[in-house]
């Protein structure tokens, strides 16, 4: 593809933003010419593609994340704390933000997650855990205290091997199915103690660094200090499921014997002092390694009883006091942050809840705590595998969790499902694609109780959000409740406009009274903006001057991959330790960069949107936007990666008009006209309908044919699957063309013995000695499943009879209902796609307007460079405004030369077929599958009209095409 911009992971969207194309390379840089993939030269009357057979019919305070404190030197800060409650003050007084020294001021972090005495705590430099592989934590009951490694270990270089999380993330971005992370049995590796807790008394439990939910994939494996009793010590697991308790007991008839037995055993072993050394003592969720010292055992016993008691207390009475006690024990925090308590109480009351809290405000804690108290399982749906892995890792040790995603092997998935069925998991992370699949639903119909379904990044449900994902369409309350018997839903997001929220709450059946919302921005940001004609120079100056020069971790966000490389090199040349990060790099390179950044070995990461989701670094001190974000949601999300430790952090936005115009053009790169939608639908429903017949759409060739991006095709297909009428059922993508060679037995002889081969012979063409055939076609002709045919091919290959190669990745589906009126379906779909497109454009305009407003207001206050109140104002307005507000933009509506330029363009390219949209795209310099920039950027009209409204260019193109072909064609 021509795109140089990055997506935010496994992004699939009908909408333009993240797969948008880069600015075209200048003509002299164009790659070697390829023949344009357009149809053969048309007759004059057919010089338009846009006529179709379908004639168109006529608050609250922002949660203060752990008391903002000053970074080392920033002198005076004047950030306004509460954009909702307080009107922005144009002359903000500097807020004295020095606070008394607290634990957080120490050069290390003390944790005490399990309520041990302070001396149990340990210095915590991050990310240096030796890991020891373990079979399955359900058996070994791996759970433990989350201590981190010693300073010495921290300084070790872990090489370039990527973390499990990173690998998954990388594979996601690159569309690979990474097999390298074993996520099935979370806790399948145990982190072993890597150092002594500083200053701890002798006779205590060693801080064993193992966590049931850590899923480091072996990449972090360092010379493992073999754990002394790692798999043979005395393990204690805490029962938090409440089995056996009448009030919350899970009354499934299908509980299998094995798990019941284990549960009973759990209950029997409470107060395990009597257990012998070396024996496993199983209870849900918590494992201590026995060190053979009576004191430590006592502490363990006390702790497990405390947590269990705290859970029971909450079950008996959901009071603030009881919940705070549980919070202290399980997470080590003294109090809840804004919104958390309300959300937890609502969920425990069985009410579906919409929770809107800023990034880093602690939304995850709400379902974590609730999951301990609720019976059965809590399902968490997340959009990215990387996010799921991070969330799984962040579960406190007492909560056993698992994960199911498409990046797992079958065995890993099966292992997780086994644990699930045994009742060994409390929280299960699942991707939306897997969610509600027949296979998944069948597990729950067997009796696993789902108390709570958590939809993380819930805005992805809505096409009016900045990050709509078709796969999230399947998350409807009706489906969740009907298929999984979910008791209540918790939808969480950090960034959603009013319209998006309404949409999400409608889909999930959440009543308005159950909305818990705080300001969408934390209060520990100092925001600034500048218009810059030389952004590179500006960036360098910024990083070298105060306060940025004192900040050790900075993220610079760019739009394009090439920009990240150029800028990181530029910074490195200026003696600033910087590296680039984008999806064009190998997984290993990306992982290495993230490692270096997280261990503070580089100061700056220059990245595309591909960086940051699931980033577990709390001390990022600054985020600089080198390019204008595409929406205020994206801006808020990205600056939210700074200051997660609660300290004051600095965010600067550099922008210019040229970038804005380019971005605005890109917003139109996914849109479709009725003509293309109609053609596509006809292709989708072209097959004869018979039950189970697998239809396929080869992605690449059809993408060119319809001038439609592959992900847009998928969006339409998903809509056809999950809309009001279920027109089709999507199947996994597969390569549909097979090139077969026969080795041992001559084809005719083999065909006489094998019906599959006979069918293949009938349906294949021979090409250079290969038999080439379409797999679904052959399977259909035999009335067998595609899988049967591929299995037979595999079998013949193993016998040495054949070799074959599969190619042409395709979307596969079966038709459930053919539309009665394809024209009205076309119309509906086109309307929807155009609305989504214009929504994206509006979002960019809102972002641009906010930036311009902030600059102007600062200019009025001569010399002021603190844009915080102005941006806060705009962000607040944006997220709370009613839909339908017109957003002004600075696009031109016409140009005296436009029509004549289009005319000349059409005359000089009369060999090609154009739609008005195709012409407008070229005039705006946007590549598309049928008009790639490698070819079309050579025309001097390429990108000439980026400053004229796209629709105006389309109208002009339509008029010119009509002039050429005659009005009767329309
Ligand atoms: N009550 C609390 N007191 C102190 N720290 C807390 C509290 N609740 C959560 N945290 C910490 O805040 C940090 C951020 O939490 P979390 O990752 O859940 O945020 P989030 O709202 O999900 O953010 P994002 O939207 O970016 O995913 C975590 O380190 C978490 O341990």
Strand content: 5-15%
Principal-axes geometry comes out as: globular
Low-confidence stretches: 7-212, 214-292
Radius of gyration, rounded? Answer: 30 Å
What is the share of helical residues?
Answer: 25-40%
| DSSP, total strands | 20
First-last Cα distance = 32 Å
Describe the protein.
- The protein is an alpha/beta fold.
- Helices cover 36% and strands 11% of the residues.
- The strands form 4 sheets. A 7-stranded parallel beta sheet has the order 5-6-4-7-8-3-9, sandwiched between helices. Strands 10-15-14-11-13-12 form a 6-stranded parallel beta sheet, with helices on both faces. A 5-stranded antiparallel beta sheet has the order 16-20-17-19-18.
- Strand 14 (622-625), helix 17 and strand 15 (649-655) form a beta-alpha-beta unit.
- The longest helix has 39 residues, at 822-860.
- The model is unreliable at 7-212 and 214-292 (pLDDT under 50).
- Adenosine-5'-triphosphate binds next to helix 8.
Give a brief rundown of this model.
With 970 residues, this protein is α/β, with parallel strands linked by helices. It is built from 31 helices and 20 strands. Adenosine-5'-triphosphate is lined by residues 66, 333, 336-337, 340, 357, 359-365, 494, 640, 644.
Which characteristics define this entry?
single chain; 970 residues; alpha/beta; 7-stranded parallel β-sheet; 6-stranded parallel β-sheet; 36% helix; binds adenosine-5'-triphosphate
């Amino acid at each position: 593809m021509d795109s140089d911009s990055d997506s935010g992971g496994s992004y699939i969207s009908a909408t333009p933003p993240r797969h948008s194309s880069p600015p075209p390379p200048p003509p002299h840089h164009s790659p070697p010419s390829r023949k344009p993939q357009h149809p053969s030269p048309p007759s004059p009357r057919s010089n338009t593609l846009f006529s179709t057979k379908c004639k168109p019919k006529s608050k609250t305070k922002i949660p203060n994340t752990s008391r903002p404190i000053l970074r080392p030197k920033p002198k005076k800060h004047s950030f306004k704390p509460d954009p909702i409650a307080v009107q922005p003050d144009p002359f903000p007084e500097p807020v004295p933000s020095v606070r008394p020294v607290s634990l957080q001021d120490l050069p290390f972090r003390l944790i005490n997650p399990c309520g041990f005495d302070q001396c149990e705590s340990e210095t915590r430099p991050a990310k240096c855990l030796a890991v020891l592989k373990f079979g399955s934590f359900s058996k070994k009951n791996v759970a433990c205290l989350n201590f981190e490694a010693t300073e010495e270990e921290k300084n070790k270089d872990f090489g370039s091997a990527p973390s499990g999380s990173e690998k998954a993330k990388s594979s996601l971005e690159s569309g690979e199915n990474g097999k390298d992370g074993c996520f099935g049995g979370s806790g399948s590796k145990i982190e072993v103690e890597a150092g002594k807790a500083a200053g701890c008394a002798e006779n205590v439990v060693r801080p064993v660094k193992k966590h049931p939910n850590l899923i480091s994939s072996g990449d972090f494996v360092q010379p493992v200090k073999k754990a002394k009793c790692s798999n043979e010590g005395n393990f204690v697991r805490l029962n938090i499921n409440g089995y056996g308790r009448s009030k919350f007991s899970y009354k499934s008839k299908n509980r299998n014997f094995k798990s019941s037995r284990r549960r009973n055993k759990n209950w029997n072993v409470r107060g395990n002092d009597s257990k012998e050394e070396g024996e496993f003592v199983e209870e849900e969720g918590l494992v201590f390694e026995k060190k053979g010292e009576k004191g430590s055992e006592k502490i363990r016993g006390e702790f497990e009883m405390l947590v269990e008691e705290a859970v029971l207390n909450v079950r008996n009475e959901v009071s603030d006091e009881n919940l705070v006690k549980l919070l202290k024990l399980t997470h080590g925090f003294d109090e809840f942050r804004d919104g958390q308590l309300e959300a937890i109480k609502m969920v425990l009351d069985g009410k579906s809840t919409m929770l809107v809290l800023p990034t880093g405000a602690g939304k995850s804690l709400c379902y974590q705590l609730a999951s301990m108290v609720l019976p059965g399982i809590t399902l968490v749906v997340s959009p990215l595998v990387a996010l799921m892995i991070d969330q799984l890792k962040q579960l406190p040790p007492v909560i056993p969790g698992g994960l199911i995603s498409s990046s797992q092997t079958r065995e890993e998935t099966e292992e997780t499902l086994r644990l699930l069925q045994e009742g060994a998991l409390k929280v299960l992370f699942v991707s939306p694609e897997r969610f509600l699949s027949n296979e998944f639903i069948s597990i729950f119909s067997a009796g696993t109780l789902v108390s709570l379904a958590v939809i993380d990044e819930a805005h992805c449900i809505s096409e009016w959000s900045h990050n709509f994902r078709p796969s999230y369409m399947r998350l409807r309350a009706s489906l969740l409740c009907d298929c999984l018997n979910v008791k209540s839903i918790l939808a969480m997001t950090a960034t959603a406009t009013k319209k998006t929220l309404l949409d999400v709450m409608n889909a999930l059946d959440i009543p308005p009274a159950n909305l818990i919302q705080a300001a969408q921005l934390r209060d520990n940001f100092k925001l600034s903006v500048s218009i810059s004609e030389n952004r590179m120079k500006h960036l360098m100056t910024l990083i070298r001057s105060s306060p940025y020069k004192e900040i050790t971790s900075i993220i610079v966000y760019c739009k394009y991959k090439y920009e990240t490389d150029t800028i990181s090199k530029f910074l490195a040349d200026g003696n600033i330790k910087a590296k680039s990060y984008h999806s064009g790099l190998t997984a290993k390179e990306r992982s290495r960069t993230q490692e270096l950044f997280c261990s503070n070995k580089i100061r700056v990461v220059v990245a595309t949107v591909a960086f940051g989701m699931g980033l577990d670094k709390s001390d990022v001190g600054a985020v600089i936007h080198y390019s204008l974000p595409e929406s205020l949601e994206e801006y808020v999300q990205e600056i939210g990666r700074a200051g997660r430790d609660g300290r004051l952090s600095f965010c600067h936005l550099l922008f210019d008009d040229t970038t804005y115009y380019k971005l605005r053009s890109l917003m139109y790169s996914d849109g479709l006209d009725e003509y293309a939608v109609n053609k596509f639908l006809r292709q989708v429903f072209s097959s004869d309908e018979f039950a189970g017949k697998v239809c396929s759409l080869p992605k690449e060739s059809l993408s060119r044919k319809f001038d439609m991006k592959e992900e847009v095709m998928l969006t339409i297909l998903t809509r056809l699957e999950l809309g009001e009428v279920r027109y089709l059922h999507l199947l996994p993508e597969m390569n549909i063309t097979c090139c077969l060679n026969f080795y041992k037995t001559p084809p005719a002889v083999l065909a006489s013995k094998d019906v599959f081969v006979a069918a293949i012979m009938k349906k294949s063409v021979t090409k250079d000695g290969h038999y080439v055939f379409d797999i679904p076609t052959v399977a259909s002709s035999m009335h067998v499943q595609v899988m049967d045919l591929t299995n037979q091919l595999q079998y013949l290959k193993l016998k040495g009879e054949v070799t074959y190669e599969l190619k042409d990745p395709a979307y596969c589906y079966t038709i459930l209902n053919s539309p009665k009126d394809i024209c009205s379906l076309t119309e509906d779909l086109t309307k929807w796609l155009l609305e989504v497109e214009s929504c994206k454009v509006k979002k960019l305009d809102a972002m641009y307007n906010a930036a311009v407003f902030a600059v102007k207001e600062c200019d009025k206050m001569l010399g002021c460079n603190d844009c915080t109140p102005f941006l806060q104002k705009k962000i607040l307005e944006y997220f709370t405004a009613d839909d339908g507000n017109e957003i002004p933009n600075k696009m031109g509506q016409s140009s005296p030369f436009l029509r004549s330029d289009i005319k000349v363009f059409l005359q000089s390219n009369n060999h090609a077929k154009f739609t008005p949209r195709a012409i407008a795209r070229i005039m705006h310099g946007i590549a598309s599958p049928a008009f790639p920039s490698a070819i079309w950027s050579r025309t001097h009209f390429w990108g000439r009209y980026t400053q004229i409204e796209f629709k105006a260019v389309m109208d002009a193109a339509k008029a010119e095409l009509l002039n050429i072909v005659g009005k009767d064609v329309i």
